[in-house]
Automatic annotation (TrEMBL):
InterPro entries: FN3_dom, FN3_sf, Ig-like_fold, Interferon/interleukin_rcp_dom, Type-II_Cytokine-TF_Rcpt. GO terms for molecular function: cytokine receptor activity. Signal peptide: none annotated. Residues 2-76 form the Fibronectin type-III domain. It comes from Callorhinchus milii. Residues 92-202 form the Interferon/interleukin receptor domain. It holds the Pfam family Interfer-bind. This is Uncharacterized protein. Gene3D superfamilies: Immunoglobulins. The lineage of its organism: Eukaryota, Metazoa, Chordata, Craniata, Vertebrata. GO terms for cellular component: plasma membrane.
Length: 213
């Protein structure tokens, strides 16, 4: 009579504990959630104590993001089912950024629009509720992959990669008549996002043709 498959699902450091109901459970089954921080002692999650949902938002309880946590769930008078250790900085899924390319005569200006804000602390609101405070992570980096494709080519060949902390970056010393395809990944420490949607631009001297893929 224990909950099944207890695990964290986290995107952009918004971390929610999920589980599956016990076998042959009833719709009226109530669940109780506790979390473990700093390997000290288990704490009750008040908002997820005696709930019918099979998920519990533990974003506030998994701060700071560079620590590791565990959680457990049970039904009334049942045994605990435990999650594996969850480390937000490693296990969260970072969304890919959006990019805007501006062609110039022999260069491409890359602008990254990510809008990734990291929860870093909580504070009490007017009604004594806990409110999350967000900020930009100081260690955010962007990896820009540049591939080239001549007019008679179908396959792309990686030309070079750049890593920068800047959201605006100019790729210089490019050649007219070549199609350059770019994608960007966001990196926070050892965690890296999927690539952004690839965009291609053909430089043609003072005139530019922009191709989107």
């Amino acid at each position: 009579k224990e909950p099944q498959v207890v695990k964290f699902i986290s995107q952009n450091f918004h971390s929610v504990l999920h589980w599956k109901p016990p076998i042959k459970t009833e719709n009226s089954t109530k669940y109780f959630v506790e979390y473990l921080r700093y390997e000290l002692k288990w704490r009750k999650k008040a908002e997820c104590w005696g709930i019918n949902n099979t998920f519990c938002d533990l974003t506030q309880e998994t701060l700071p993001i560079d620590e590791c946590y565990k959680a457990r769930v049970k039904v009334d008078n049942g045994e605990w089912t435990y999650s594996i250790q969850f480390c937000p900085s490693i296990h969260t899924i970072i969304s890919p950024p959006e990019i805007k390319l501006t062609p110039r005569e022999e260069s491409i200006l890359v602008r990254v629009n990510h809008g990734l804000m990291i929860p870093h602390r909580t504070f009490k609101g007017k009604n004594r509720s806990r409110i999350l405070d967000y900020k930009e992570h100081p260690g955010v980096q962007y990896t820009i992959t540049v591939s080239i494709k001549a007019h008679d080519q179908i396959l792309l060949e990686v030309w070079t990669t750049y890593t920068t902390k800047n959201k605006t970056f100019e790729i210089q010393s490019l050649s007219p008549g070549i199609t350059y395809c770019l994608s960007v990944q966001t990196k926070i420490e050892d965690n890296i996002s999927a690539p952004s949607m690839q965009q291609c631009i053909t430089l043609a001297g003072k005139e530019h043709v922009s191709l989107h893929q």
